[in-house]
Specification:
flat; alpha+beta; three-stranded antiparallel sheet; 114 residues; 2 helices; zinc; Herpes Virus-1; zinc-finger; 2 domains; zinc ion binding
């Protein structure tokens, strides 16, 4: 898909009030360390299905593009890997996330849709 300038502008208009509100809350509570990453928001902002653009996801473990037969799976810790990677990393019914120390049951992973 191609981003239209109108849709980008409309998305910004929808997100700005939420961002201004969270900024005010962070400043009032004096917890400035919450929002430290320039490329990451401390909250999720729902902009509706019209703004879902990430149609391609490459698994960071297997370095392969996901597909319908090998969809992206969100682990309990929030990291996302492909189903094939999840199956390869599962050992004796347990899965240790390759990015953090969290050990989890692979059946708790949820398929996500980009």
């Amino acid at each position: 898909r191609v981003f239209s300038i109108t849709r980008v502008f409309a998305s910004g208009c929808m997100a700005l009030p939420v961002l201004m509100n969270i900024k005010q809350v962070i400043e009032q509570r004096q917890c400035s360390g919450v929002w430290t990453h320039k490329d990451e928001l401390p909250i999720e902002i729902d902009l509706g299905k019209k703004c879902w653009y990430h149609s391609v996801f490459a698994c960071p473990i297997l370095r392969q593009q996901t597909s319908e037969s090998n969809p992206p799976m969100k682990l309990i810790c929030g990291h996302v890997i492909s189903r094939d990677a999840l199956n390869k990393l599962t050992n004796a019914g347990k899965l240790k996330c390759p990015y953090c120390p969290m050990e989890q049951n692979p059946s708790h992973a949820k398929q996500i849709y980009f």
